Amino acid sequence: MPEPNGAVPTVTLTIDGHQVTVPRGTLIVEAAKRVRIEIPVFCYHHKMDPVGACRMCLVEISPGPPRPQTACTTPVAEGMVVRTNSPMAVSARADILEYELANHPLDCPVCDKGGECPLQDYTFRHGYPTSRINAPRRHFLKPIPLSERIALDRERCVLCYRCTRYYDEITWDQELTADHRGADSYITSQFGQPLRSIFSGNIIDLCPVGALTSRVWRFEARPWDMAYTGSVCSRCAVGCNVTLWERRNQLVRVTSRQNDEIDEGWICDRGRFEYTEVNRPDRIRVPQVEGREATWDEAMEALLDGIQGAGHRLGISIRRDVTNEELFCLWRLLQGPCRGARVALEGRTSLPAPGEDTLLIRDLDCARAIVVVASDTADDVPIVNLRIKKAVSKLGARLLIVHPDRLDLDRWPEAEHIRNRPGEAAAAVRELAGHPLLQEGPVAILWGDGRGSEDTRELAAAVAELATRVGGRSMPLYRATNERGALAAGLISGVPDDLEGCEAVICYGPPAPGRIPASARFVAVWDLLLRPEHGSPDVVLPALGFAETQGSYTNLEGRVQFLHPVLHPEPPLREGWEVLCELGQRLKVREMDFVGIFQLQRAAARAIPQFAALASPPEPEPQPTPVLYGPARP
Amino acid sequence: MALSARAIEEIRSLPPRFPHLRSAVPPALDIAQEELGRLTPEAMTEVAEALGLDPGYVEGVATFYTLLHTQPLGRHHLYVCTNLSCTLRGAEEICHHLRRLIGVKEEREISADGLFSYEEVECLGACEYAPMLRCDGRYYYDVTPQKLEALIQGWRQEAGNGD
Ligand code: SF4
Ligand code: SF4
Ligand code: FES
After folding, report:
1. Closest ligand to A146 CA?
2. Could you point out which of A80, A192, A299, B43 has its C-alpha 20 to 30 Å from the C-alpha of B139?
């Protein structure tokens, strides 16, 4: 409860002799983190409501009853003294672990969680060396596939309910549940059907034991045998932060990396599982001219020949995860020798460039009302969809939907849904200004292109007008990873892409929109793989995947985020910006002879205002898992 | 097997009587089970839809309560109390006798004629009449092997006449 001046009152307490001052209402387990004391937890998760199900977090609190209490459900109080190392707390923790292990199969050697498993770590740090329990263990068939991508091992489960609570609280979709609650309880998918949710993979990260593991990344390596870097997801415009894991120069897994500005530690299944292309044995590694392997030199010559004189009949199709740096190079080319060429961006919307002062994802947290227009956010911008759900179910925002179909946001019982006819979203938005749900601000308006059904210019005008009238801000929901960067560089605009009629086409990535135009006489494909949609190109150039390239993306809120490659490709593979610079130099463009990416980034920052952040790339992130010191074992 | 329109109607009328929507799930499931005999995935989905909840949540509730059944049962399902008072007064013998009478080896197994199944339950709140059992919504007190035989016989005859 804020005080009249807006300040949140604080409370001072002592934890293991350290004084700490935290806002009132903070839970003991969180207060302890401030003094770098790790209280072990299974069921508690900092992004979900506490339940106190596992009792792993027992501590001694005085004043208070003479028994251990849960640090994850007890809020701090003034003058409270918490002991995590008293004999009572130490033995309580060890006793709980003894019970946690009563049914545990102890199959760590064949468990993918081994090495990053809280149960393993806590047992090592806080458990008894032996067990007094000698009863038969529960047995289950294992592992059970919950979907193509996730396996469940019920014997390893400690029934913390993190996974089911995540589904319930965070995604609003109870595909996972606990059956036969009580001593015989086990986790199951709804009626044993496969999980369908696009958010399913987060339960792998959430599970504090090896009960939920990936089937895509299975029995590949121990965590300490992998290298990892913090990077950015390449699959859509949200720009969730991820950790990339490498082993033997293969990208073996992608996990979440919490950034509260954007993703709050969640990623969707596209980001988590759609990374395997870069490992494919049939990857293009060497340039080709007319089906035969060639040197870069030969391939570049053939490419120049092919596009020579094409003028405005040159089409350039760009992959969704093109970097800002590559966009800058393309911008230079389009300013110069390729002036008039047409450009298409894979998987993008037809939304126009953003207006001034667009909403940030984190602003959804303080919105009192959220309006979602012409977008199925779960599909278009998955992790923004979770942020909307949080704002509505945890922070009390009201939800108003303008869309022709039933959406997953309709699971909110109080959601108000205006069903416009496809193509008439703008008219529906114009009628919203007096709507009772929008009388209290701030109002956040998120709007998409209705997957092509809406006239986006008209909708943009209607949204801007509504924003002014209700005192709100808006966010256009771009889909392609670097769509906002491409708009900033002026390569695309609010009209749908069309390369029909182009005679020469350079296709960087899968063809946009959908296929190579039939009119193309010359086609150069620059990609990781040759795809059926590519047909039989004249020139083929090998491209890099997002896990092996330097550069940055501009996400849908305009935030520039840098990639940190975890793979280090061998020649003849080359960085995309290098290839474009060479092309520029061969076309006699001045100032494309950058000696390194930093120089290029500084030039891009000067040339395009939205790329200003490129001038100061951050140091690589510190390693993600902080090692806290914890209480001793008995 | 689908729920009747009347059952759906009744389920829809439940929520206003409870502080939380989710509190309406047990009585709703009771209505469904009353009508269908057991809770199939389709029935749980229908209940979920009628209340605007996820089927997964309803499934979690349905499998929690011993009085709700997701597996097929005999037409007459006997709940035999084996809590302290009843056990002291011979509940185990009653169960043993019952298994022999209806020809099953374990709880929830259905007799060959499809008429009977049984399960052991905790206290049903009639300790003063131990041992006791519950069947088809009725309590049977001071059960003895003889009384049990008569009961089973009665149901068998009823079924025979009905056919
Ligand atoms: S599967 Fe994992 S996350 Fe789910 S309840 Fe079991 S231990 Fe917890
Ligand atoms: S929401 Fe977009 S950026 Fe985030 S994980 Fe999914 S695909 Fe990647
Ligand atoms: S972490 Fe506190 S009870 Fe589970």
Report:
1. 1
2. B43
